[in-house]
């Protein structure tokens, strides 16, 4: 199973690094070519963290990517891990048109039937 990260904790770590080094969200946004709202959303787990943003914070603030990710590693309660995976699966499924969603569900049902 893939590692599960607490993106709230990672966002807080990104914000901590930024504020500790006296950078504003506006400065970060300008450097990354995005909006301050996006930076705020990443730091507050309202937008997906991407590798470009993660690498920029790490490079700018002389932190390792591992140290940033470790701020949120395995801090999710086990009962919440299943809920997070459920939510992620639905989010992915909803990216497909309804006809393809039905096909995906059909394949998943087939996989489940093989496990019995």
Can you describe what's shown?
With 116 residues, this protein is an all-alpha fold. Helices cover 69% and strands 0% of the residues. It has helices spanning 7-20, 25-32, 36-43, 51-60, 65-70, 78-93, 98-115. It is elongated.
Q: Helical percent range?
A: 55-70%
User: Biggest β-sheet: count, sense, barrel?
Assistant: none
Q: Segments where pLDDT lies below 50 for 5+ residues?
A: none
What's the order of the H and E elements? HHHHHHH
Number of helices: 7
Overall pLDDT level: 85
- Secondary structure category: mainly alpha
Our Rg estimate from Cα atoms comes to: 18 Å
**How many E strands?**
0
Shape: elongated
Give the terminus-to-terminus CA distance.
Answer: 20 Å
Percentage of residues in DSSP E strands: under 5%
Brief overview:
The protein has 116 residues and is an all-alpha fold. The protein has helices at 7-20, 25-32, 36-43, 51-60, 65-70, 78-93, 98-115.
Key words describing this protein structure:
mainly alpha; 69% helix
List the helices and strands and how they pair.
Blueprint: H1 7-20, H2 25-32, H3 36-43, H4 51-60, H5 65-70, H6 78-93, H7 98-115
Helix pairs in contact: 2-3
């Amino acid at each position: 199973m893939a590692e599960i990260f607490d993106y709230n904790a990672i966002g807080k770590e990104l914000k901590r690094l930024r504020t500790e080094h006296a950078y504003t969200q506006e400065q970060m946004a300008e450097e990354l070519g995005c909006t301050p709202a996006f930076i705020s959303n990443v730091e507050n787990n309202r937008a997906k963290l991407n590798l470009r943003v993660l690498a920029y914070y790490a490079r700018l603030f002389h932190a390792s990517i591992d140290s940033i990710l470790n701020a949120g590693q395995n801090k999710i309660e086990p009962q919440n891990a299943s809920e997070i995976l459920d939510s992620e699966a639905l989010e992915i499924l909803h990216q497909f048109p309804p006809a393809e969603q039905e096909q995906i569900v059909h394949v998943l049902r087939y996989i489940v039937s093989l496990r019995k």
